[in-house]
Amino acid sequence: MSTFPPCPQCQSAFTYDDGSQLVCPECGHEWQPGASAAAEDTALVVKDASGNLLADGDSVTVAKDLKIKGSSQVVKVGTKVKNIRLVEGDHNIDCKIDGIGPMKLKSEFVKKA
């Protein structure tokens, strides 16, 4: 029996071979066995409140009422935000919310839709 390397994203030991790729059954990550690890480490990894991986263009829903600093407005629970963009930093989601405008959100307060 052949042993495969652990998943580069979640470090799961349960990886398996699927033709020319290796696959992690826990997080769903797929990669080439000879691919450089440095290229994968540079990718921005952002997870929502439930632990799901987020990507540019995803839609998310707000999981908690969020007060907007310097305003009396509130982003309500269940507000759907379409076409997000991931950025570096503490507030790692850049988006436009209908009725409010452009703003940055923390990924820990959203869930993938």
From TrEMBL:
Residue intervals of the Protein YjdM C-terminal domain: 46-113
A Pfam family annotated for this chain is YjdM
**Protein YjdM N-terminal domain ranges (all copies):** 3-32
Alphabetical list of InterPro entries matching this protein? YjdM, YjdM_C, YjdM_N
Q: Which domain of life is it from?
A: Bacteria
Q: Which family would the database say this protein is a member of?
A: Belongs to the YjdM family.
What is the name attached to this protein's record? Alkylphosphonate utilization protein
Organism of this sequence: Aquabacterium lacunae
The beginning of the lineage is: Bacteria, Pseudomonadati, Pseudomonadota, Betaproteobacteria, Burkholderiales
